[in-house]
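Quarterly update from the structural biology core.
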Amino acid sequence: MSGAVRLAVFDCDGTLVDGQHEICAAMDEAFLALGLRPPAHGAVRRAVGLSLPQTMRHLASEEGIEIQAALVEAYKSAYRTARAEGRVSEPIFAGIRPLLDQLRADGWDLGVATGKSMRGLLHCLAVNALSDHFVTLQTADNHPSKPHPAMLQAALDQAMALPADAVMIGDTTYDIAMARSAGVRAVGVAWGYHPASELIAAGAEAVAMTPAELKDILV
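Predicted structure, tokenized:
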């Protein structure tokens, strides 16, 4: 890495935290609210990382755009209600906090690029005491869905980092494809929602089995 600013951008769900249970529960509620059969949870997990409109196009491909749009709003409502009632748990994966602390100590700037809304991301970081760890936060509110590179390009601009001095870290093929489109290193993690073999096939230079191994890859 050649520049003065080294930037490590992390996906959120499936990489920093495990939010699959709440995501699946809200998806069940959304589909049932519209009288539709909820999708299999495996399919829901595979769509984590996409923006909500893109997710509904995947999970309700046989429905029209009006139903898909209604599903987006129903999901948002279900998730907001769960969060307001204290039912949302997005625990940080073991080993992630020491990894982030060590990277910062080693001079890395950190960022997040996620399919979450900004409101959802800020809540997730706050409850996990991670709010002060990141210099750039990019969400689906203001960007096209992954794997479009817009979120990653915005993170680079905000952190004033060059693509050659940055790395995207994520658990899905969407993260890997986004990194490659932006000309950034792509590193996968094996504790999320897409298998390591798919991450390698999508172009990841390596897949970390643990956060400790991830640190060694980033050196």
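DSSP finds ten helices and six strands in the chain.
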